[in-house]
Design goal:
By secondary structure, the chain is an alpha/beta fold.
């Protein structure tokens, strides 16, 4: 297998550039370019030369012999000055070496997985960590990258394998004294408890989704309620056109914010009213679609407007979102609190600080379970649901026979194994022989 190399640090030019190598030739290449190999896992200041002996730079070099490296292979790192010309030349020198080539995207992590250094949840966590833009995304990614998900899912899978092993032993080795003494009731209790753990874990997927992809907040209301001015104040810029003419907003305008370390997608929608104008009607339909998908609807109204048939807002569509009734133009006087619990002035900012405190609290409460281990990706959630469904079948198939019950447990264990990517067909036998001393 070829030795791979890549620039692992940021864009050039930079103060320092890090070039990483992984493969059998890593040690040979360090010796060739530096004249010596540093003590393993120690950074050493060394001259870095071309294969012909021309001085390129002087930098820190480190060597990580297999298997104690990120990829599980021999690895090396060169820390050079981040000059475009220098890095280009050194990469060209590496590319000319025998059995040495540039790495493909994600190839270091892929080799780490192939060599058992990380599992799929850790690989996914590392990928998410690299693209994290908010604190909530960082926290969620670290649950995978740190191995917390791997440990949880492997522990659950081991409990399923143990339960299936006891059932298989009951079927195949009933004459063994130890098997006869196995308490099958205890197995059922453990499976029921595991099923509950799985269901609770799956239920927290909504929190994980919010941490990863963000909250969806929709600003809705009648035309001329101040929705466009509202989103402009919220974003701190002129994101939407503001006009006294009703129906100016025809499409859904979206902005992305970070509130309390959580990504938030805020959508300004067309005014909700009955209209015969085709394009405006399409805007109203789009607004209703966004409202149905929202986590929070900010229903804005002009507290001092004289309602006319032309400007009368249509009813909000059915939605699971929390709805806040907000009265605008507080600078012109207080409205009825029972009608508008939130009152403010978008134009002057009166009452805005109090509103933002409530909004920040709402965002915090939506992710208050950040200490819990959460399923980070839809792939993981799908397999968790599969495992829970198969486990539920096992718990309700006692009358169908132990063979079918054991098969459902196998399906459930395989689903969890696919999350981490380490299914082993021999591990069931290992459990049987270690737990029950079969065959002695």
């Amino acid at each position: 297998m070829a030795t791979i190399f890549a620039l692992s640090s940021g864009a050039l030019p930079a103060g320092v550039a890090v070039i990483r190598l992984s493969g059998r030739q890593a040690r040979v290449l360090v010796q060739k370019f530096c004249g010596q190999v540093p003590k393993p896992r120690n950074m050493t200041l060394l001259p870095i030369k071309t294969a012909q002996g021309e001085m390129l730079d002087k930098g820190l070099v480190s060597y990580f012999p297999a298997p104690h490296s990120f990829t599980g292979e021999d690895c090396a790192e060169f820390h050079l000055h981040g000059s475009k010309a220098l890095i280009s030349r050194f990469l060209a020198e590496l590319g000319e070496q025998e059995q040495c080539r540039p790495a493909e995207a994600g190839e270091f992590a892929r080799r780490a997985f192939a060599n058992g250094k990380i599992d799929l949840t850790q690989a996914e966590g590392l990928a998410d960590l690299l693209t994290a833009e908010t604190e909530s995304q960082r926290k969620l990614a670290m649950q995978g990258a740190s191995g917390a998900l791997k440990k949880l899912y492997r522990d659950w899978r081991q409990r399923l394998i143990k339960a299936r092993a006891m059932i298989e032993a009951e079927l195949d080795f009933a004459e063994e004294e130890e098997v006869k003494e196995a308490v099958f009731t205890q197995t059922e209790q453990d499976l029921a408890a595991l099923h509950q753990d799985l269901q609770q874990h799956i239920a927290q997927a909504k929190t994980a989704y919010i941490m990863r992809d963000g909250l969806k907040i929709v600003i809705a209301g009648a035309p001329n309620a101040g929705k466009s001015s509202f989103i402009n104040r919220l974003s701190g810029r002129s994101a939407a056109l503001v006009s006294s003419k009703a129906g100016t907003t025809r499409d859904a305008l979206e902005i992305r914010l970070i509130i309390e370390g959580i990504p938030v997608l805020v959508t300004d929608t067309a005014g909700l009213r009955q209209t015969t104008e085709q394009i405006e009607q399409m805007g109203v339909e789009t607004a209703c679609a966004r409202i149905k998908e929202a986590d929070l609807v900010l229903y804005l109204a002009d507290m001092h407007a004289e309602t006319s048939e032309d400007n009368m807002a249509v009813a909000l569509p059915a939605t699971k979102a929390e709805i806040w009734s907000i009265g605008n133009k507080l600078d012109l006087g207080v409205g009825a609190r029972e009608k508008w619990p939130f009152q403010l002035s978008v134009e002057t900012g009166l009452g805005w600080a109090e509103f933002m405190q409530k909004l920040q609290q709402f965002c915090r409460e939506k992710t208050h379970r950040t200490a819990a281990i959460l399923p980070a990706r839809s792939r993981q959630l799908h397999l968790l649901k599969t495992a829970a469904a198969e486990l539920d079948k096992a718990l309700h198939s006692k009358n169908a026979g132990l063979e079918l019950q054991a098969e459902y447990l196998r399906y459930a264990a395989n689903a969890l194994g696919r999350i981490t990517g380490d299914i082993d067909v021999e591990d069931l036998l290992n459990v049987i022989f270690s737990e029950f001393c079969i065959g002695k």
